[in-house]
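Good morning,

Both structures are done.
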Amino acid sequence: MYSQIDANKRKSAILIFLFMAFAVAIGWFLNWYFGYGYQSIVIALIISIVMSLVSYYQGDKIALKMSGAKLITKEDNPYVYRLVENLTMTAGIPTPKVHLIESPALNAFATGRDPEHASIALTTGIVQALQNEEL
């Protein structure tokens, strides 16, 4: 599992670097084609750095907000919360924030940059449709 985590971190770093290189290449192209000067490269670099930092530090919140996920506590939905809590205890990782999405679709996703900033979201459809062991 730890080798997969390391591989995912490497792939994320490579993806961020490629995005930044692509943005700078667009700035260079604008400089070359339109003659804007090197400020287009600097602006492209600044935009790519800002976008990378926002996506790294706020990407989980953006995904949860876009899906309409609502944060739940143990008191709101003890069944789902305890299920996630038991799984994380078994795995030896911190319990993530648990979210529910009001949707009949069978779907779930996990997001976050590390275990301390992790969140899991489940639809109400998947909670109702699956048995305890399946969920």
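Second structure follows.
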Amino acid sequence: MAKIVAVCRSEQKGTRKKAVAEGVLKEDYGLVGDAHADCCTHRQVSLLALESIDKVKSMGFEVGPGDFAENLTTQGLELSSLPPGTRMSVGKDVLLEVSQIGKKCHSGCAIYQEIGECVMPREGIFARVIHGGRVRAGDRIKLGETDSRK
């Protein structure tokens, strides 16, 4: 079963994000209170799999959810294999649509400066918020949904 492991946000760009108990994803905007949220971009929410974070941990680095500046840390889903346009429901209300796989890494990000390695450019994904709502650790993720409220 695919699920959310952590919901993370930061007040500034280029920094690690901190896990919060619960977040609100706003339609066509992103995670409320996060520096990366923006109505005018296709990269409203970032996702990274715990399995990707574990790869870096296995190299001897102390990293965890939010350290790669992702908003949603997932488990049980190979995110980088999802093509743009894939829809996924999260919890009871949220509907996301994959908008981009990976990104060009900038050497200025906090994790790259600290350890010289970042999996987000290769294995992270971005999504637009089609339908907003509350999201928290433990929420189930279902692929191919058209409306998460069904």
